[in-house]
Amino acid sequence: MNRITTSLLAMVCSLLVTFVVRAEEASVRHAPPFPEIVVAPKVEGQPPERYEVLRGDFHIHTIRSDGKLTPEERVLESWEFGFDVIAITDHRNFVAHDEAQPVADRLGMILIRGMETGLHRMEHMVALGFASDYTPRDEHSWDTELDGPRVHYREQWPKLIDAGALMFLAHPHVGTDPEGQWMAETGKPLETPWQHALREPIKWGLDQQLLHGIEIRNHLVRAGWGVVRDRGTMWYPMALDWAVEHGLTVFANSDVHGWRKDSGAPDEDESATLVLVRERTPEGVMEALRAGRTVGHFAGMLAAPQAAAQMLVEGLTRVTYRCGGDGPTLVRIENRGPVPLTARLVSHELQPVEIGAYQSVLLELEATPDELQIEWVNVLVRSDASLVTRHAPCAS
Ligand SMILES: [Zn+2]
Ligand SMILES: [Zn+2]
């Protein structure tokens, strides 16, 4: 690398913390960069696939429902927290979208039209990317009774789909006990959270292919919302399993109503839905969400079904070797991204090692294995399983 390139790089790096100067104060954006994710082509001769990793939050409220911030404040705050794409998802309406768009445009943020809707007092769903002329009916209170006073979910849900919506299940806190009695009405957490089960309206939506995604983490909800304390935080590990079983896109959102700094767990960074996009546009984001290219990032963990988790981790890391010859085999694992990763060499006695953001570790092996398997301890692909990648150390 020549000197000009080096100093250009230094300049680019110094721009990573960007300042917007308003009349009296400066807004600082904290957004440590993700590298480009390059995936080798499946067919030889084809060019590699390239993805940009965007930080997304697809469940947010403003004063247009029960939130505390104006749409404009919400966009600026989300930008300061490092988000690249957000959906404002007020209950019952989506008027905040148009109000927020000019600010989003000024900041270069992507805004997706959204609304929280769903069943009366029961399952909430978030609709994303639907047409602006969609006219909701009984916006947050679909009926489960066919002859009930409000519109039946089997009538209204497909209407959103027809309007182009992508639908995900928010804070999936309802479930059944072994006798099949629905527990969420009590408002109490289940004694044995693993008895959570999807119930009829959602099962019907899955059968009809009307449900595309699910929140595995909602930064706001705590005990009483059926969340499980697991791996030192509160989340919905069962929802990760449901995502795997039903081919759903995973989301890790804030559901923030007040200011972000005052919301959720005080000792944890904001949750994010990492989205691997082919292009940085609203259409590019919707394409990635429909294709399932998302990874939940919260409480120091990454979580997603295997394909998305593997794509992200292989793109963020580089594993290289010094093989054979004189001396032991050296394995170098480089973390090229902003998320600390914990790696464990499967079938080796070594302790798991944490590889900090943009750091590398060097491991010494006494013998050269035919295949090296790395378990990424803080990258979950099921509620009880971490991602394992395979590497051929000294093939050539
Ligand atoms: Zn809700
Ligand atoms: Zn909400």
Annotation keywords:
single chain; 396 residues; alpha+beta; TIM Barrel; Immunoglobulin-like; 2 domains; 3-stranded antiparallel β-sheet; 8 helices; 22 strands; binds zinc ion
Provide a compact summary of the structure.
The chain is α+β, with helices and mostly antiparallel strands and 396 residues long. The protein folds into 2 domains: 28-304, Metal-dependent hydrolases (TIM Barrel), CATH 3.20.20; 316-391, Immunoglobulin-like (Sandwich), CATH 2.60.40. Helix content is 21%, strand content 30%.
What does this structure look like?
- The chain contains eight helices and 22 strands.
- 21% of the residues lie in helices and 30% in strands.
- α2 packs across α3 (95-107).
- The chain has 396 residues and is α+β, with helices and mostly antiparallel strands.
- The radius of gyration is 22 Å and the shape is globular.
- The protein has two domains: 28-304, Alpha-Beta Barrel (TIM Barrel), CATH 3.20.20; 316-391, Immunoglobulin-like (Sandwich), CATH 2.60.40.
- The strands form four sheets. It has a 15-stranded mixed sheet that branches. It has a three-stranded antiparallel sheet with strand order 16-17-20.
- Mean pLDDT is 87; it is low at 8-16 and 176-194.
- The structure holds zinc ion (2 copies).
- Residues 116, 124, 170-171 line the site of one zinc ion.
